[in-house]
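Weekly puzzle thread! Below is a chain. First person to post its structure in token form gets bragging rights.
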Amino acid sequence: MSSIFGKCNLNNKPVDNNEVVAAIRALNHWNADETGVAIDGHVALGNLLLWNTPESKYEKMPFSNPNTGNIITADARIDNRDEILQKLGRNNPEGRKLPDSQLILLLYNAYGANCINHLIGDFAFAIWDPREGRLFCARDHMGVKPFFYYNDTSFFAFASEKKGLLCLPGLDKTIDLPFLYNQAFQPVVQGAETTLYKNIRRLEPAHTLVFYPRDRKLNLQQYWTLDADTELTLPDKNDYYEGLRHHLETAVKCRLSSAYPVGAELSGGLDSSAITGIASALLRKDGNNIITFSNVEDPADKEKADIPGQSEREFAEAVIKFNGITDYQYVIKDIWKDTLEEVDHSLNQNDGLEMWTLPWQMPIKKAAQHRQVRTLLSGFPGDEMVTYRGQFFFLDYLDNGEYLRYFRSHSEREFNKWKPFIPPRLEFWMHKLKNLLSVNDDACKFANDLINVPVKYWLMRNDMVWKDPTYLERFKSHRHYQKYRLLKPKCPLRMEAESRFGLYYRLESRFPMADIRLTQFYLSMPNSIKSEGAISRSAYRTAVKQYLPEKVLLRDNKLGNMAPFRTTPTAVKARQNTLYELLNIKEGMAESKKIVLSQHPNYKYTQMQFLELLRWFSGGFENL
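Winning reply:
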């Protein structure tokens, strides 16, 4: 795992070495194992490397090919290494030691921009090609690895974190007001390419970016998406179960590559439990062990979490016992001395406001760091695809023209059956009307009093949803709805956030449930097999039953909380009290007089810190 950055000056102006040093200093908040820089006149590439995979210890980045002059910097874990080595004629002991970055560069030398079609894994990389006079950049299919970029009339730059760009002199830091105001309300919805800064953009998942400094031309292109139209046909029903298990085992196996201890987030749900069981079995064959980390309640704490239900601890314990896991840790306490320290950490890691802050995961990541774990397996985003409960199966009736069956069908979740018949354009204007009618709501009035949100921005709330093509196609069939659940911006943005926050703790989050081979296989399975049986997710349960104790295999709900020590009445009240103290208002007095933060007597923090507190700890303006 790495942090990457680069800068390309226009008009052939040489890159200032002081700017490169500043970028390294800004990005190296996590104490990289090795740093490197390559400067080719008006182009500079940099890398901060975290050793993790066995091959990474041979890695030197940026890496330059002496024959072509091509230079690469990459944050990459390639999962189809054997296949690539075979294609390149390097399937020998020496070739198998090649780092992932050099494999990517060899593919680029062989296939040019089409190299991206031969890669499977999590990656973000940039290749400077002096012969073609272009910078070729790419981001992985699911957007696990972060990639931000900036482009103006004097230079183009990119980095794994926005802090690697914000340190550059002359960069326009204008705030993107729709992003800022949208961030203040629940539910938070942001566009896949947007950030807090108007001119700092994300490279979207499954996209390439090619920049030609001579022509000042930037091209973006999508290279992949899930196929929601093709249904897989196999001879026997058991073939689907075996195929699903094979793809899940493969997805876990390729993510176990590490020269350090491997850990797993174990919640006791179906996703993390199966991944833990598979990983434990595979590691044991090589004489290694998995280390599990579970957020649970403190047995000595007499308070209960504010979400009622049974503890998840008993399910995690059942998985541990069933799989013979001997190394496990229960996390029972938060890691922050107070609320403001937590908020500051979030804002520092996100370089301002971002959709995901993941406070419940930081105690686990810190615990994993203490155990020298550099690979942490996650069960996300299982619920979005492979273990999706599949409520809207009746959309297939609509797709087949069976309107009577469609309207007579039932689901365990309510669904407006007329919604698929509303044209997207009309739906968009209905959304705008809803925003207009909410202008006089208490939440809107309070927001305007607090941060002076202009009405025009309130009316733009959530507009970016309609830019997502998978959203517009979601009602075409049940399979299209499943595709939307996995590829909607909210999902990759969370995985990206886990990668960025994980780097702070010197570890790499890996997501077997996001493997594109696994997700495509499941999506292509007949929907009738996915939803058969009296219990939901029956196909998945059948496929992984050898790895799960009956207690977990037969459960059909999630009763506990992701971090129960964060949701006790005392913990919640402490966060709310911090917010009210900073605002100098008493609970229930939010509607009193206009609050101007810059003139507030208790104004100790930036507007963004107030917004983070409001959104994160209080559920947005609606709950104040």
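Puzzle host: Confirmed. Bonus trivia for everyone else. Residues 569-623 form one domain.
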